[in-house]
Design a protein that fits this description.
Blueprint: H1 5-16, H2 29-91, E1 96-98, E2 103-105, H3 134-142
Antiparallel strand pairs: 1-2
Helix pairs in contact: 1-2
Length: 159
């Protein structure tokens, strides 16, 4: 039967009760053999899970690299679009042209800010930004202090 890590850990806990005396001597050899077998199964499952995580990380890295390549192509295409639109605005004097597939017209436009300091106050809105200082909180946790509203999330280091 294929057991989960949780099931194996529970069996190990159950078997380990009364397995050793106060001096650390084994009280039941058959029970100890089963304990060693289960500990080996547990370690094997942990290693397989770690290898799977490592494989997923490599796949994620590959996807990230592909995403960067596609993003670079997108940036290039957007630059071409912007250059062509700017060229049309400069050299095309009409307001609207169309055929059965496309319609091109001049829009009213968007507001571009040249210098924010020169904008009248009635057109400004104050924004307050709050930033959580995670590194400072982490340092406090390392010193054994508790900080309300947060906790340390344990992670694994795989190489």
């Amino acid at each position: 039967m294929n057991k989960t890590l949780y099931e194996i850990e529970n069996e190990l806990d159950f078997i380990s009760e009364g397995l050793f005396n106060e001096d650390g001597e084994i009280l039941n050899d058959d029970k100890f053999d089963l304990f060693e077998k289960l500990a080996g199964e547990r370690d094997e499952k942990v290693l397989k899970t770690g290898k799977y995580i490592k494989s997923l990380r490599l796949w994620s890295k590959t996807l990230k690299e592909e995403k960067a390549r596609i993003n670079a192509q997108m940036v290039s295409a957007n630059k071409k679009i912007q250059a062509l639109e700017e060229r049309l605005l400069v050299f095309w004097t009409g307001d609207k042209v169309q055929d059965s597939q496309i319609q091109i017209k001049r829009n009213f436009g968007t507001v571009e800010i040249d210098d924010e300091k020169d904008i009248p106050k009635e057109f400004l809105e104050e924004e307050i930004k709050i930033k959580v200082l995670k590194n400072e909180i982490k340092n406090q946790f390392k010193l054994g202090k508790e900080i309300a509203g947060c906790h340390i999330k344990q992670t694994l280091g795989l190489k």
